[in-house]
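Batch job 17 of 40 flagged for manual review because the log was empty.
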Amino acid sequence: MSDEQPTWRPIPGPQTRFLSSAAYEVLFGGAAGGSKTEALLVAPLRWVSEPSFRGLLLRRTFPELERSLIDRSRQLYPLAFPSAKYREDKRYWAFPSGARIAFGHLEHEHDVYSYQSSEWQFLGFDELTLFSERQYVYMLSRARSSKGLPIRVRAATNPGGSGHEWVFRRWGPWLDPKCTVHAGAGETLHYRNTDDGEQWCTRESPGALSRVFIPSKVSDNPYLSNTDYIERLKGLDPLTRAQLLDGNWLARPAKGLLFKRAWLPIIDLAPAAAFRVRYWDRAASAGKGDWTVGIRVARADGLFIVEDVVRLRGTPREVQATILGTAELDGRATMIGIEQDPGSAGVFEADSYVRLLAGHNVRKFRVSKDKVVRAQPVSAQAEGGNVRLLRGAWNEAFVQELEAFPEGNFDDQVDSFSGAFSALTTAIAPAIDPRFRRYAPHTRM
């Protein structure tokens, strides 16, 4: 065996350029697999020989923080600094000089105030598009040094996410072809903050700060570019594939992108042996607004078959009667999915349906993601040729709504379809029905 100690070296190309940049703000990435998180962890190590140095690495939520940054730091940091110690209770690394690199999260908007009196010479945001613009800008006020150390703000991200638009605007010269100022990849520009907002300026302008975007893709990472990771990215829905594989910042949800008529062939016979779910997305009120929709989907032999769609606009009493009557027609073998809205009122209403449907296999499902994100997994299956529609009078209205999503007037059938697919592909399905165990739960990336 060799006595040589393992070492870490930057990947030539984008990762090296990111680590060597002297700009104040650097955005790194643009696609999945480009070694972004690794670079973000290593970047603050340059200054840990300074006793007063303080660095902070952030994710939006604590589980994300623990799963990515903290776990990987336990492997990386001891390679360069064997005597560095991780303080579990405080979530920071203490280095021999006295320098520290801490980990934090900003799950809620007001969480920024927990850093109100802090002073950080290095701020790192992992998956920046998951943060709000307000959180990012506020944390910049904590980037300062009373000891004369350089200030560095670093961010890594993919396109997409709730913060896509503000990140796209902030780095417009690199990402937006319609921006009045243009910059090449890796080209540093300067700006200054004025009463009228940011203004691009020259390097010599008083108060000038610098900003740059360094793109990176999986093809830049030799540890992933020759694996099946790329093939898995190709299996994503069209929107997510464009964002994560191609690093396309211009890819946005649009009519006809997530669902196409050609991906939804119609069949005349449903499978006899299948696991079935009827998933209900209920409208807030009766009238001319949204529809209450219950879609029944079967899963068999790797296919997802939409067998029936029930739609109505009705009073709460009419909706309850329809859901109960439909459950009796579907039979006890069909699982019923009830969408649980946020808040105590949503919990109470969902519980009332569980009581109403006593004797049926009824399950509550909480919704936490936006509509487009929820639709993307079933979109990928449709494009992959794994979705069928059972012939019925509902077919045309269903296909039209899916093709128009997310720009159409209604999305209730899309929501119900997404919910049914999620119910069929989570661990709960094989756990509650032995007939279904031969079908592996769908794996999300």
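Reviewer: the log was empty due to a logging misconfiguration, but the result itself is present. The longest strand covers residues 303-312. Unflagging and moving on to job 18.
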